[in-house]
Amino acid sequence: MRRLPDEFLQIRGRDWGACSPRQRVKLVEHAFYYWRKRGFPHYTLTGSDLKREYQNLAAQSVKPVARNGISGSITGLRVANFFQPQMWSVRVSRYLSPADVFKSDTMLRAAIKRSWSLWPDRFGANAATLRRILKTFPGTASVSNFRPTVARSVLKHFSPNGGTVVDFSSGYGGRLLGTLSIKRRYIGIEPCAAQMIGLKRMLDTIKEFHPPGSAELLQGCAEDLMPQLPSGHADLVFSSPPYFNWEKYSLDPTQSFVRYATYELWRESFLRPILRESARVLRSGGHLVVNISGGRRKPDAQEVKSICQTVGLRYEGFVPLLITRIPYMHPRNNRPHKHEVLLVFGNYKSGSRRGR
Q: Among 38, 132, 209, 261, which lies 20 to 30 A Cα-Cα from 101?
């Protein structure tokens, strides 16, 4: 079976399945050597690609925040991910990263074969499908980015037009991108050097498209930098704190799980101070919205609620954050979504005011 050097990229799973066993082995080997030579299938977006995806995000209608849950499309997500290529190497708990799977000859071959086997309608060995299978390969877990479309919904609901938003854990930039696409001022804090490089590159790129929003990025530890922000200045504090040491973004000494070795120390030295400072920087009537896991990862909802109430914030309820499940990864679970949680708190302290 003679093929052009990259013709296998146009072979769908059903076509691969129709080949003889010997032909399938040859195709897997062809794809293996192709990707081994090219390297990890990172996003490759041109300037026009980035502009088009950003404009699609900015033009998309904003979904309302509903008490029964909020979800959003993936529009804009690959823009934010494009500027954070190191995210594919981040370890989650005891699992391998997608980059770990790619580096192993045995696992990469198995991943390519699995990709063609699972999806009859997909081009099983192209970059997009290979990224998908590397994220979901057995024994593997990957970090995720906050969806910019969901960020837009939260921002529209909980902050005024032209308002100031503080994000004490900027992460991979999903909330930053969502904020830039509407008229808000974003102040983002991030300790990880690699992530900050990506955030600044994305901000510089999006500025060229004349977005309605603006942003200021501060590199460092939130528990050190939050006290430097003015009191009563923010309309919304909106963030997703790390789950202690569940996701090891880097081993930089500024990472909170490195700085604070036990969960108890992390909670008292990182989580409690940033929630206390969140209450201080909020104006009267402002809101804190915190994204936490709906499962067993720490911190849990009760801990966050308890700390926030001790610093004077009023708990106003939660909004389920609906994340689509990948069916083949959960064959015994017929629920279409897994749930994370957005905890909502209001600041009604009489002493809160703008400025110091």
A: 261
Residue type, 133: I
Tell me: the pLDDT tens digits for 225-265? 999 999 999 999 999 988 887 777 777 888 887 888 899 99
* Beta pairing, strands 282-293 & 337-347: antiparallel
d(CA 36, CA 262) in angstroms, rounded, equals: 39
Collapsing DSSP to helix, strand or coil, 78 comes out as helix
In angstroms, the CA 38 to CA 215 distance is 35
First-to-last alpha carbon distance for the chain, in angstroms, is: 74
Task: Provide CB contacts within 8 A for 193, sequence distance 6+.
Answer: 219, 250, 252
Render pLDDT for 74-115 as a digit per residue (tens, 0 to 9).
999 999 999 999 999 999 989 999 999 999 999 999 999 999
164, 153, 188: which is closest to 75 by C-alpha?
153
Bridge-based pairing state of the strands 91-92 and 282-293:
unpaired
This prediction's pTM: 0.90
Confirm if 274 and 241 have CB atoms less than 8 A apart: yes
Rounded-to-integer distance, Cα 84 and Cα 219, Å: 16
Residue 332 has pLDDT above 80, yes or no: no
314, 350 Cβ separation under 8 angstroms? no
DSSP 317: E
Provide the CB-side half-sphere exposure for 323 (13 A, CA): 15
- Residue 141's identity, in one-letter code, is A
Which residues, other chains included, contact 176 with Cβ-Cβ below 8 Å and sequence gap of 6+?
80, 167, 170, 186, 188, 199, 202, 203, 215, 217
Query: 284: closest CA among 317, 319, 313, 316?
Result: 313
Torsion of CA 290, 71, 111, 3, to 10 degrees: -140
The predicted-structure confidence for 293-321, as pLDDT tens digits, reads as follows: 867 788 889 999 999 999 999 999 999 99
Give the side-chain half-sphere CA count within 13 A for 12: 6
Question: pLDDT per residue over 126-155, tens digit each?
Answer: 999 999 999 999 999 999 999 999 999 999
Alpha carbon distance 243, 295 (integer Å): 11
Distance CA 321, CA 71 (A): 6
